[in-house]
Amino acid sequence: MVFGLIVIIFLIVFVAFFIGKNIGHECTLWIFKTFENLPVSTLVLSAFAAGIVFTLICLLLIKINRPISRKKDIKSL
Q1: Which of 7, 20, 70, 77 has the fewest C-beta atoms lying within 10 Å of its C-beta?
Q2: Which residues pair with 29 in a beta bridge?
Q3: Cα diameter, the chain
Q4: What is the pTM of this model?
């Protein structure tokens, strides 16, 4: 419990430091339209969030498609 809290606080401090250091850096993003002068921290955090969403979708699809065979496992014991 305490270890998890320390990890979360460390991650928040790291994200805040990262955003603070990259607030002035800008770049261009093209996704069927050109977005100019976007902060680097915005792109990195949005890519991280998109990765989490796609991972959760894949995990849910795998869990839904997997057949449930608990009775067979219990009978084999």
Answers
A1: 77
A2: 35
A3: 63
A4: 0.57
